[in-house]
Amino acid sequence: MSFEVKVKLFIEEEQLLQQDDHLLIAVSGGVDSMALLHYFVMMQEQWGVKIEAIHVDHMLRGEESAKDRDFVQQYCETHHIPLHAKAIPIPAILAMENGNVQFICRQERYRYFQEMMSKTNANKLVTAHHADDQLESVLMALTKNATMNAMQGIRGKRDFAGGSLIRPFLTVTKSEIRAYLSRQGLTYREDASNAKDDYVRNRFRHHIVPLLEAENPKVTEQVHHFTKFLQEDNELLMALAQDVFSRIVTVINGNTYCVEIDALQLEPLALQRRFILILLNYLYKDSNTIQSYALLSSILKLCDTTTGYAEVHLPENFIAVRRYGTLTFQKKALVETAQYDLIVKPDEWMVLSNRKRIRLVERANVSQALLTNTAQLFYFNASQLKLPLVIRARKEGDRMLLKGMEQPKRISRLFIDEKIPLNERNSWPLLVSQANEVVAVIGVRMGMFFSTSPQSDDDTVLIVD
Ligand SMILES: Nc1ncnc2c1ncn2[C@@H]1O[C@H](COP(=O)(O)OP(=O)(O)OP(=O)(O)O)[C@@H](O)[C@H]1O
């Protein structure tokens, strides 16, 4: 099958192009992306699309990278293709931020791609990833601490910057691309770093892939089918995991995710894993960069039991905590610092940081307000407390009067006795009167003003659910 037919079939099969698409073609100047740009120059009318090119000079290889840019520019001028180009001082960024060169290049490159997608109103970014890249990616994922997401390799199409990123060359090999370019009589820029073994990808390319190709010259085709099957299976499993997510996750204040462990454990392990990946997607802007098999396993290990307290520290200051059968994901800062002072208004449910809900009602209205049978009722005489009550975090020296005790008990002591985790003590919700006396530690102990049975007809009731 010819190069052009192979590419056409893949584009049609994956529905990568539509009539009137506005494409931004990512061109480094190397063999793959020059072939990509040339392919679209030749085929733009046939596909009915509008094309522009985009290039990033990472300023990493001195004059060489400036020459890459000139090379791309010259081709674009000859073929009347608008070019968007930007030089990004990666060495200077690295000096300030530290980090992995390839990671920073990629991050900066895609930031510019994204910016230009919206400035030019393009709806698709096109890159020249090909079948050899696919094979290398799968092999790299297999040997790394990767999740099943990475094992599925590169996709032909994914969402990007309000449109999509498409890879029309994903089924053609590098040697097919090279042969196409030479048939077209075109040249390209050679990046000397590609020949070195410094990067993992290069080591796979130079040493592992040739062995596999010797075993089966069509190994890239085989990997293409393999990844496609995996992707299709995964789509189904992700949809099922999303259903589970909608059923068993409660989101508090838009930033704290609470999972009922019992309900999660009813699901097959394959869905539990994907459920956690979906959750990480909510927590992180780019969850792909933090996904690892080890992280997934340590989070799932928290769900082995529903009793006791355990936590896993996650990247970027997130934390997963298991307590009372609930698994909670949130920013550590939210756990450690209090964000109250909230006035407790009658007849309104308040959701607190310890995942309890409370509500104040007149005794006569209790039955109306009771929605669950897990709620506990605490009766008190409102005239004995200075209202309104307030929810706040602990303060130095806080104490509480308890029934049967002559001296008020220090809240810090009570936290220790009740085994409240250290990192939650500063945000644990306390109920405080206007006289600044702590009258309850919500979900832990109620002070002397509260009884579990009615004292009079006009009691006020605190419902804790
Ligand atoms: N400097 C660049 N300017 C414009 N496009 C580029 C540049 N570098 C890479 N690209 C585009 O990205 C494609 C993949 O390049 P490469 O394999 O170097 O990137 P990668 O980092 O491995 O992949 P990814 O972009 O998915 O992270 C290229 O074929 C080209 O389309």
UniProtKB/TrEMBL annotation:
InterPro entries the record matches: Lysidine-tRNA-synth_C, Rossmann-like_a/b/a_fold, TilS/TtcA_N, tRNA_Ile_lys_synt, tRNA_Ile_lys_synt_N
- Which residues belong to the signal peptide in this entry? none
Swiss-Prot/TrEMBL domain comment: The N-terminal region contains the highly conserved SGGXDS motif, predicted to be a P-loop motif involved in ATP binding.
Report the protein's function.
Ligates lysine onto the cytidine present at position 34 of the AUA codon-specific tRNA(Ile) that contains the anticodon CAU, in an ATP-dependent manner. Cytidine is converted to lysidine, thus changing the amino acid specificity of the tRNA from methionine to isoleucine.
* Taxonomic source organism: Lysinibacillus piscis
Q: Where does the record say this protein resides?
A: Cytoplasm
Its recorded reaction(s) are:
cytidine(34) in tRNA(Ile2) + L-lysine + ATP = lysidine(34) in tRNA(Ile2) + AMP + diphosphate + H(+)
Family statement: Belongs to the tRNA(Ile)-lysidine synthase family.
Per the UniProt entry, the Enzyme Commission number(s) are: 6.3.4.19
Protein name per the record:
tRNA(Ile)-lysidine synthase
Gene3D superfamilies, A to Z: 3.30.465.60, HUPs
Q: What PANTHER family does the annotation carry?
A: TRNA(ILE)-LYSIDINE SYNTHASE-RELATED
> Where does the Lysidine-tRNA(Ile) synthetase C-terminal domain start and stop, copy by copy?
389-464
Q: What CDD domains does UniProt report for this protein, alphabetically?
A: TilS_N
The alphabetized UniProt keywords are:
ATP-binding, Cytoplasm, Ligase, Nucleotide-binding, tRNA processing
Residues reported in the UniProt entry to bind ATP? S28, G29, G30, V31, D32, S33
